[in-house]
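Task: encode each sequence below as structure tokens.

Item 1
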Amino acid sequence: DVTPVRISSVSIINHEIWVKTPDGIEHDVKLRGMDIPLRTGQEISLISALKKDGSHLHTILQNHTASKRWVLRDASALNTELELSPFNWKT
């Protein structure tokens, strides 16, 4: 009796980028499962939005140099890595 062999594989993309804030401090940001091409010297912004109840909605990575944008789903992890504090925009 022959038992068939089942083989499967999964590739996960991992990125580590360094972001320098206006005060000159560099922060490492690790992105998992997203293919975001970045090059040294490109200007990017990381923008995180929260719902009124304080729960995370999403984070956007904007590459100003390449005029491209990606929506990141794990805003909480990114906020923790960059030590970002939520704020409420009130008019």
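Item 2
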Amino acid sequence: MPRWKRLLNPARRYSIFLAPVLLLVTLLAWSVASPVGSSPDEDFHLASIWCGQGEREGVCEPGATAVEQSVPAPVAGGICYALESSLSAECYEERMDAPVEQMVSTGRGNFTSIYPAGFYWVNSLLVGENVETSVLAMRALNAILVVGVLTALYALLPRSRRNAVALAVTITLIPLGAFLVASINPSGWAIFAALAVFVGLSGFFESEGRRRYALGGVTLVAAFMGTGSRADSAAYVVVAAFSAIFLHWWRPGTASWWRPVRLRWSDLVAPALVLTMAAAFFFASRQSRALSSGNTISAAMEDPTADTPGKLGMGQLLWDNGMNVPSLWAGVFGSWDLGWLDTEMPAFVAVGGLVVFGAIVFTALPHVTRRDGLVLAGILGLLWLLPMVLMFRANAPVGGAVQPRYIMPLMVLLAGVALWRSAVGGRLSRGQLGLMVATLALANSFAMHNNIRRYVTGDDVTGFNLNALPEWWWDSAVSPMVVWLVGSAAFAGFLLAIVSRMGAWDRTPGAGTRAAVPGDEPLTVS
């Protein structure tokens, strides 16, 4: 046996346990790679979390007006370093030192149900006397929840389907996904919720027995995270649910391609609960009305500092936006700045991420069936048309109303649908997998280094050593360089663990799954 196989076999044996641990360590490193207030609109989300369980003495009290609440002084107010990339987070330390007993009235929060309440309620369970400690605990909790749901789905899915979770997450996580999941921004829950609902319901339809019920339960948790975080995420959960329904309930028949298979009552339970939950959260938030009216989320109060563009001609607006919408897709991989759009990423991050994403999805296309192709076309159409509609109604160009994080759940879902059947009929070569690992590991390392540098000294200071003359860092013995090295090594280890499992993929449906249905053959060109 070749030496590399002897080394790989033990790693493969334990990789199913190592992969989620290493992914969690990566996200925890990202969670301490930036200060309190670093995620988009975090001043809004901080106050919303402190008031997530309603009024509580010393935590959230009545404000000066009916639409305001009083929160501790370190929680209220703007972020001094936001939008100024040359400023380190040193200026924020004075605010963190303000007494928590001092209550400040603010209208900047989810006090009129702009967002769904689920995300804020869960995170408010960790509100404590020290704001920094509370925020770090919340970031860790959000990372644990996301990793936990994805790990549960991976473990419960048949072997032939696990790649849909593993690869879809791997090729879309860096850098925007990692930054947001390890934050207190509701988008962190939303990013992978649609993917989790799709693979969860798909596994639910294909499985029998206890595996089926367990998948249904995990899917409901994922649906709660998606619908309880953002109204647009609730809409994406509906897209994911109907994608799974279409792929598994409508099968090619002898008389008609569209003949539905015979349904069982148990098939209706999980999707019905998911769709009901999505509808309830969507219509309960003002964010949904902002979307339907054509206003941006910032217009609904998320970012009142956003510039309002002048009136543009209808034809010019449609033409310019139609050409430039793909820049939003590229922004998922780092072509847009992180944080408050003030943390620039190295070119390698965006280029490497885009190349890997395109290569993996393109490799999966030979396994796509007719119905898969229709779903993929629908998701791709949404990725193009949804930003176009929102920007048109807001009379805004690309970059003025819609950000990459708003459409990122659809990008992840696109990858998941494309990869759903890709383990059947072929695998990536060792060279391809090695190139993917190297590219993504370097992209994560470069992105985290730039992110830490921006807050430790500001981006007007350059250099490899993050420990040199820091202007800001946590009150901890763990240095910036240690965080960067641990986060870089952990993600590289996660990638190797995932790759080592790929050789164990089964080419046939696993135990506990329903038999394959005739007509699931890939698309062919004659």
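Check on item 2: The chain has 20 helices and three strands. The longest strand covers residues 69-72.
End of task.
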